Amino acid sequence: MRLYPKTFSRLLLIVFLLAVLPVAVALLRANQSIHGLAEQSRNAVAQATRATRVNLQMVEQTLKLERVARQFLILTDARLLDDYLTVRSSFKDSTSELALLPLEEKQLEQLNRVIEQEENLYARLAQQPRAQAERIELAEGYTALSATANGLLELSRALAEKEVGKLTEQSQQLEQNLLRPLWLLISLGALIAMSALWVVTRPIRALEAAIRTLGSGNLEHKIAVQGPTDLVRLGEQLDWLRKRLRELEEQKARFLRHVSHELKTPLTALREGAALLHDGTVGAITPQQQEIVDILSAKSLELQRLIEKLLRSQQTLGGVDRLKREPVDLTCLVQDVIAAHQLSAQAREIQFNLVLKPVTLIADQEKLSTIVDNLISNAIKHSPTGGMIFATLAVHRNRVVFDIRDHGTGVPEADRERIFDWFFQSEDKALAGVGGSGLGLPIARELAHAHQGSLELLPAVPDQPGAHFRLSLPMSRLREV
User: Fold this and answer.
1) What's this model's pTM, rounded to 2 decimal places?
2) Are residues 53 and 189 in the same domain?
3) Residue stretches of the chain with pLDDT short of 50
């Protein structure tokens, strides 16, 4: 079942949409809720404003009705009654407009009371009462009408304030209702983003690990990348490169074996000829010729040793995958190798500082011995006279770790990337007097890889001179004592 899209760009688009979707849903929901509350607030404000305006008009009109009625009761002028009718017409328009609004029950009752009071008072006023007591009672009735109209205004204001309080409460409730799902959706979006990031970076991490594996010289493990089609193809190309590099390594190994064997025959003849000249078998030679013969003998012997070392290294690498696994006391192995190099170390007054934890490792003892021997001989070779070599053996994070550090000049920065290359010789002047074939460290790293481990040169530390190498082997391969 295919879990990835065809291209990496399409995968990024899907990840983006998945991460943005919950936030977009949250924002859309919040927008709808806020829009609904805003619409409700606008309607409530418009209704309250209109009701208050009409109420104020009606209060003013009731005051005018009261004033005109009092004037008419005193002056009994018919023209004042016409003025009253004009004001009354406006009063009726206001009450009709107010009645059309969506009022509450209390407001409607108060409005009907105002209308009924005005109609009763007008009916009595139209009869033009003559008695003084009746006129006073009618005037007091208009005063009561104004009070009733003011009561309706206060009631409308109270209801408007109540509506405002209700809207405030609704907005607070809306805020609470929005915050909880909003945080939930944002958290969901963050979770989706993190999960998607893991999905996106997984094939990239696989490619990075494959490139690191190729860079370390480990060419045995197949490279397989799961992900979008373009990244899968890139993984297949890297695996093709791995196979090609392995073929080249095998060709190089065969070439070195053939060359080494071919060089042995003429080198043997050269050594034998030099020996005959040295012994005087073919006749006496001059002191100058004797010096040249000695040089030939020494250099031919050195060349023979180099060829034999090259052959041994090829034999070792040829059987690198054929490990003879057995319990190996790694602590004793390190101590034995150091003891074997003790004479060369004492000749230069080099001391060892050992912190070795007892550990038994299931591994190939001979190949492990070769790794440790190369590291220790390398440390002695690059240590100054009277120097100190630090060696530690411990278990750290499910791996057994062997560290060795000398007090030499260290590895130059320009050589750090190539220190494990075959036949590498540093051009640094500080290392010019140190001999070497350039085979020890590459062989040691290959043997470490055969044990599913690693051998690396750690970064230089300012207050710790010298080179610091670390051999690391997986915990699954060992049993701690």
Assistant:
1) 0.46
2) yes
3) 1, 432, 477-481
